[in-house]
């Protein structure tokens, strides 16, 4: 974020008016919190983390709000712009993971046509059992891609029937979960993920349109509480093998996320204080500038951290010390992944490449009305 904090200007030393921030720092903070929570959840597997902060619902709501703004300018450019920012990072990830899966021995490989999903993930790309811990995060990219493609239609539906467009996906999710549908596992999983978070995505439309601000807190808070309680009750009544965890119950996750996120999207706190917290501000900048890279590679870093800690642990080592070592190795390895692969996000966004963007979130180059040829569309 680039701002001018009370800089003096003019012949008489008068203070210039501060420049309006080009980024929504509250959104940046929410995205950073979501990413940090995802990393900790996958590191330690604590189901209660999904209750404290349903990261995926928040991420999809933020995506829907930003997509709504872009679609109003140009639906075609909005879609191609999101794909341009998303797919190159996936391609680089696949360029490393796919050869590794073959080298590790992949006996039951799918047909070659399934590998096209590594180019455009309409369903989850194929993976060997050995690489499942690393590729298990790709479902998010599949759901995000579909919601990007569906956004022009969803936005028109929302403007005609706002409440129905938010509620109907959860009803369809319940029907999809209850009725036997003759589709393959990969298609069924993609449909489930899309329906789970469509309501949060459309909630982002409501935020961008200003409709949430029209609802008084006296109405919004009880409504959100009912949704959160319903999602929690569904999770308690349908516990997974590892106990209460929203990730195991799509219906509960969708309802709970909607209730939790509607309050987050309704409030609009001032984030001026963030600029004065240098470390926290830097973390927020870092997570936003490298969001896709962190998401794609954090499970790889976690896996190698577990291997390292497994070699070092011994009798008499406390759990707290093991966890501290785990976090330390994870941060080092994840920073290494970001340093090696993070440049892809800068290139995809058409902005100057930075090794570790900490001081600010770099802005993309503005698109010209008549752009000169600059290579393939993705870059």
Tell me what you see in this structure.
The protein is an all-alpha fold and 379 residues long. It has one domain. The protein contains 14 helices and two strands. It has a two-stranded antiparallel ribbon. Helix 3 packs across helix 10. The longest helix has 29 residues. The two termini are 23 Å apart. The N terminus and C terminus are likely disordered.
Distance between the termini: 23 Å
Q: Can you tell me the residue ranges where pLDDT is under 50 for at least 5 consecutive residues? A: 1-21, 366-379
Radius of gyration: 22 Å
Q: What is the makeup of the main sheet? A: 2 strands, antiparallel
Q: Strand tally, please?
A: 2
Overall, the morphology is globular
Count helical runs.
14
| Proportion of residues in extended strands | under 5%
Count of folded domains: 1
Order of helices and strands: EEHHHHHHHHHHHHHH
Helix content class: 55-70%
Going by helix content, strand content and strand pairing, the class is mainly alpha
Order of strands in the sheet with the most strands?
Answer: 1-2
Average predicted local confidence, pLDDT: 86
Keywords:
379 residues, mainly alpha, two-stranded antiparallel ribbon, 2 strands, 64% helix, globular, disordered N terminus, disordered C terminus
List the helices and strands and how they pair.
Layout: E1 8-9, E2 14-15, H1 25-44, H2 48-52, H3 55-73, H4 75-103, H5 132-135, H6 139-160, H7 162-178, H8 185-209, H9 217-237, H10 250-266, H11 278-289, H12 291-312, H13 319-341, H14 343-348
Antiparallel strand pairs: 1-2
Helix pairs in contact: 1-3, 1-11, 1-12, 3-4, 3-6, 3-8, 3-10, 4-6, 4-12, 6-7, 6-8, 7-8, 7-10, 8-10, 9-10, 12-13
